[in-house]
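Hi F.,

I've been meaning to write this up properly since the lab meeting, where we talked about keeping a consistent format for the predictions we share between groups. The idea is simple: the sequence comes first, exactly as it goes in, then the structure tokens exactly as they come out, then a line or two of notes. No screenshots and no reformatting. I'm using this chain as the first example so we have something concrete to point to.
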Amino acid sequence: MTPRPALPGLDEHVDSSLARPGRHLTGFERIPAVEILLANPSVKKLISESREADLPSVIRSCVEEGMIDLTDSLCKLISNGSVEPKEAYKYAPNVDAVIYFIRKIST
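Output, unedited:
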């Protein structure tokens, strides 16, 4: 079986799973912000059709299967005080959602 060629933009998606700078509350210089994409039938279909841009909506709709959206992960880190909002803005794929979350928890 021949290996599958790398997906366009894969580096961007892999990078989103790397640890992001934090406030050093835990004694470490980095706090992990994660995005988890599981290869369910919907994901496999989108990838086979080269529709990687639609993957974030699948992640958000499959939370009960164990998928985690990077923006949601960053919001949880903000809420527990591990990451400053200004750091989350730098890495969030959906900055508007982070802003909305901060306004919601501030009221």
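Notes:
The chain has one domain: 10-106.
DSSP finds six helices and two strands in the chain.

If this format works for you, I'll send the rest the same way.

G.
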